[in-house]
Amino acid sequence: MAVEAGLCDPACGDGAAALSEKRTVAVRIRGRDFRIRSDESAEQLQRIARTVDETMARIEKRTGAVDSYDVAMLTALNLARKVVGLESGVSAVDEPHMRSLIELAESAIAPDVY
After folding, report:
1. For a Cys staple, 8 with which of 12, 32, 94, 95, CB 3.0–4.6 Å?
2. Cβ atoms 65, 59 nearer than 8 A
3. 91 vs 82: CA distance, rounded Å
């Protein structure tokens, strides 16, 4: 893992001695390698990538979608539902309504079965 450290000198803002350590971490999502530059720990970035990968795999299996853009959009909807719930302090965001919207999107993307 390559580690790049950046220092914020007094001229960069409020004069505080802000220290930001950015790391570049390689992650794999759906068989593609990505290099993420972040101040998150490598373990946390791997965990995030694993969550995205597992969610995408579940959506691919459930919908039969093969277009990576479609799968990425459905994954974003699923994960955004969780984030919105956490941000609003509500453990469940109108789950039935959100689920029906996600299923509607999934059915629009799923290939026709004859």
Report:
1. 12
2. yes
3. 9
